[in-house]
């Protein structure tokens, strides 16, 4: 398939450039939303709610060259998805800046933008056009999208509220994977569907990765990371701890995980020992009382 270039800077220079990137969240309050976020989630805010602020990510700087496939690794809740959302432009950073040269295909929340009351067909046209596909392009690819998603023909014109969650996600993946945007952001979506569908997703990603497209992948699956990525960013405690090749990033992450497990085990043992000693003392006290 001919690859269209949607504006990637084919000259030298990084396609993604993050400088001192940071974002803060309010624990109990909705944050400022970008237009796309508003489209996806609505505009409601709770003006009365207040809460403490925290920075899941701060002072994150890195560059991604064209053709790189970068894996982001780190513990749960360290800000990996948040980073991807800032690159995708669905989350506005509170500090620093991110420059993205070229259009982004966001394989993030695959059901984003879907309207439950519209049919599968209508949603494909709606979400496709949101991502910049023309009606003609969608017409040409419609059958392929539906076939890839394994949506039976009787469901194509049924409102997606009657779809299973798997069907919606498959349709989302099938649609976004049709985008020819030069940058792909992928968040855990490779866990989508059964084994056969997963294999199709892998093949689709491999096809997308051909032709020097750039990918940033968030995953906890080391096999996927090793399969696709040449570079690795390890996010630790809200900042970028390691920016290197994927093997070294995974090694640093695994080493920290091992050290943390050992520390927790030691703390648990110490706690257990203290409890046993306290129990023993209490028993001795009881015995002493009885003897007196
Ligand atoms: N809209 C939001 N408002 C408030 N806090 C948020 C919001 N989105 C994410 N967070 C918090 O920010 C932190 C980072 O979340 P994020 O989803 O980016 O982590 P992650 O590294 O992708 O986690 P996981 O590996 O579990 O997917 C978490 O503490 C999360 O609870």
Automatic annotation (TrEMBL):
Keywords: ATP-binding, Nucleotide-binding, Transport. Residues 35-262 form the ABC transporter domain. SUPFAM superfamilies: P-loop containing nucleoside triphosphate hydrolases (SSF52540). The keyword Nucleotide-binding applies. It comes from the Bacteria. Residues 260-292 are annotated as: Disordered. GO terms for molecular function: ATP binding. Belongs to the ABC transporter superfamily. This is ABC transporter ATP-binding protein. It comes from Nocardiopsis lambiniae. The lineage of its organism: Bacteria, Bacillati, Actinomycetota, Actinomycetes, Streptosporangiales.
């Amino acid at each position: 398939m001919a690859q269209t270039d949607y504006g990637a800077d084919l000259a030298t220079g990084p396609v993604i450039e993050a400088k001192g990137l940071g974002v803060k969240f309010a624990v109990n309050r909705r944050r400022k939303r970008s237009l796309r976020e508003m489209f996806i989630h609505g505009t409601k805010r709770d003006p009365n709610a207040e809460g403490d602020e925290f920075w899941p990510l701060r002072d994150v700087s890195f560059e991604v060259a064209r053709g790189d496939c970068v894996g982001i690794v780190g513990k749960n809740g360290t800000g990996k998805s948040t980073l991807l959302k800032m690159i995708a432009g669905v989350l506005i950073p509170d500090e620093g800046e991110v420059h993205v040269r070229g259009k982004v295909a966001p394989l993030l929340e695959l059901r984003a933008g879907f309207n439950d009351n519209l049919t599968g067909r209508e949603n494909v046209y709606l979400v496709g056009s949101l991502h910049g596909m023309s009606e003609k392009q969608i017409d040409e690819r419609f059958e392929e999208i539906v076939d890839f998603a394994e949506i039976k023909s009787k469901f194509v014109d049924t409102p997606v509220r009657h779809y299973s969650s798997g069907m919606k996600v498959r349709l989302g993946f099938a649609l976004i994977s049709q985008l020819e945007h030069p940058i792909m952001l992928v968040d855990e979506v490779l866990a989508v569907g059964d084994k056969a569908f997963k294999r199709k997703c892998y093949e689709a990603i491999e096809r997308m990765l051909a032709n020097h497209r750039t990918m940033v992948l968030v995953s906890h699956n080391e096999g996927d990371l090793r399969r696709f990525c040449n570079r690795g960013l390890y996010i630790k405690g809200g900042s970028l701890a390691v920016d290197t090749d994927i093997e070294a990033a995974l090694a640093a992450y695994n080493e920290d995980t091992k050290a943390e497990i050992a520390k927790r085990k030691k703390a648990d043992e110490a706690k257990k020992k203290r409890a046993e000693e306290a129990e023993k003392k209490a028993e001795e006290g009881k015995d002493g009382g009885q003897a007196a």
